[in-house]
Amino acid sequence: MKIMMIGGTRFIRPHVVRALVKSGHQITVFHRGQSSADLPPGVERIAGDRRELPKFTDQFKRISPEVVIDMIAYAEEDALSLLRSVKGLVKRVVIVSSADVYRAYDRWRKVYGGPLELVPLTEDAPLRDVLSITTRRFSWKRRS
Predict the structure, then answer these.
(1) What is this structure's pTM?
(2) Phi/psi zone of residue 67: left (φ > 0), alpha (ψ -120 to 50 degrees), beta?
């Protein structure tokens, strides 16, 4: 499968790229070009700023990924910009983020009130039950 990853050279992302390549997928990484992770041979790279994704639509068409995995969406607008940039080009978009999951974030923003959760947070830390961004389901047909 042809997969394009937004962000793929820092933190856990190179490990994800290597696992996808090992599973037989053809990977393209879109990143700022500021780091040079040790990625497997054959991984294509596109250097660019995610805030300017629409400028890369022609390159995305050339690659023709079936799936886009966004590993660095920090805000709703990041996700929406990606969706606008690949609409009609891909079958699926996966947006991975844990920045806004735990209740500590809400308490800090005084949604719940009360003290901030103690850190470090663990996988067992209470999850949020009030979301800060709207969860949306997008659907579109792929262009021929």
Answers:
(1) 0.69
(2) beta
Instruction: Give a yes or no: residue 142 inside a domain.
Output: no
**pLDDT, position 85:** 92
* Residue pair 83/57 in contact by the 8 Å Cβ criterion: no
Q: Is the dihedral of CA 31, 37, 42, 43 positive or negative?
A: negative
| Domain of residue 90, residue span | 2-97
